[in-house]
Amino acid sequence: MPPPQRGHWRRRGEAGPEWLRAVGRGGGAAGSLAPAMPPPSPPPPPPPPRDGKKTPKRKGASGPAASALPAADGSRPARPGTARPGPQARPNGPPQPGRPSLGGGDFYDVAFKVMLVGDSGVGKTCLLVRFKDGAFLAGTFISTVGIDFRNKVLDVDGMKVKLQIWDTAGQERFRSVTHAYYRDAHALLLLYDVTNKASFDNIQAWLTEIQDYAQHDVVLMLLGNKVDSAQERVVKREDGEKLAKEYGLPFMETSAKTGLNVDLAFTAVAKELKQRSMKVPSEPRFRLHDYVKREGRGASCCRP
Ligand SMILES: Nc1nc2c(ncn2[C@@H]2O[C@H](COP(=O)(O)OP(=O)(O)OP(=O)(O)O)[C@@H](O)[C@H]2O)c(=O)[nH]1
Ligand SMILES: [Mg+2]
């Protein structure tokens, strides 16, 4: 991982949100991500062949040109049945009227980009598949290569909100690919695995990376995944809560396996983004922290 560079917003002396100030205070201590992560390797292979499908880990394989990757503005080469013409809200800009998809896709009023980040193996792809398809990808772990995205339209208080969700590769060797996508993300879900201490210890380094590459006012939520694995748990809920509090982040524990709090995590960011973009003074302000605290369920509720 390259040495962290300072975020442009910090050079301008802006305070930024609470978690950024916290990273700033502790930034010197934030090192690179865990040495346990795979070493960097030559240019990243291509994205998976189909939306949402993971590509098996390949060593030294060369793939199609990088242009096959979805562009950082969210566009990607058109393929039958996948085109979703319609506007994307600019980062933090006003929503633009949605358009129906000519390809028979979903209608929506406003669209946002959400990015999943965190160490390899924490369950980013499984979380996305659970949210999108309501299924769990059990079995052999197939690490994501590069980046991919899937869309889902939510009904948020009567408005159709399209989330374009980018599933990033957690492996260190793809870091340079994912860096390019941060700046267009409206929201980030930062995951660790409650059964993997290193993934928790790496959260501060991820925050430093987010600080360096994402918009300074990106919506950010911390998720402790795999809470269904009670026997293997090594990161206590209180530790997650403490870390989240330290950085001023909304926090929930999730399980892609049981579905615990998965829809809630995405719905919460959709509500926050919608509210921010609408800026309707008459509407009571949506409070993301309070919402996830109130609506989040404990791990014990949903064992399979
Ligand atoms: N028990 C349990 N296992 C999970 C859960 N989420 C993911 N897994 C398992 O964890 C492994 C890794 O999941 P992925 O979703 O592929 O991890 P990832 O974060 O996308 O990893 P990279 O693509 O390498 O960044 C897989 O074997 C999954 O079956 C969960 O909530 N509970
Ligand atoms: Mg993955």
TrEMBL record:
Gene3D superfamilies for the chain: P-loop containing nucleotide triphosphate hydrolases (3.40.50.300)
Bias (Pro residues): 36-49
E.C. no: 3.6.5.2
Membrane topology category: Lipid-anchor
MF GO annotations: G protein activity; GTP binding; metal ion binding
Gene Ontology, cellular component aspect: membrane
Compositionally skewed regions (Low complexity) per UniProt: 61-91
Enzyme superclass (EC): hydrolase
Keyword Protease recorded: no
Localization of this protein: Membrane
Record region (Disordered): 1-103
Cofactors: Mg(2+)
Chief location of this protein within or outside the cell: membrane
Substrates-to-products reaction catalysed: GTP + H2O = GDP + phosphate + H(+)
Keywords on record: GTP-binding, Hydrolase, Lipoprotein, Magnesium, Metal-binding, Nucleotide-binding, Prenylation, Protein transport, Transport
One record GO biological process: protein transport
PROSITE patterns attached to this UniProt entry: RAB, RAS, RHO
Family as reported in the entry's similarity comment: Belongs to the small GTPase superfamily. Rab family.
Protein name: small monomeric GTPase
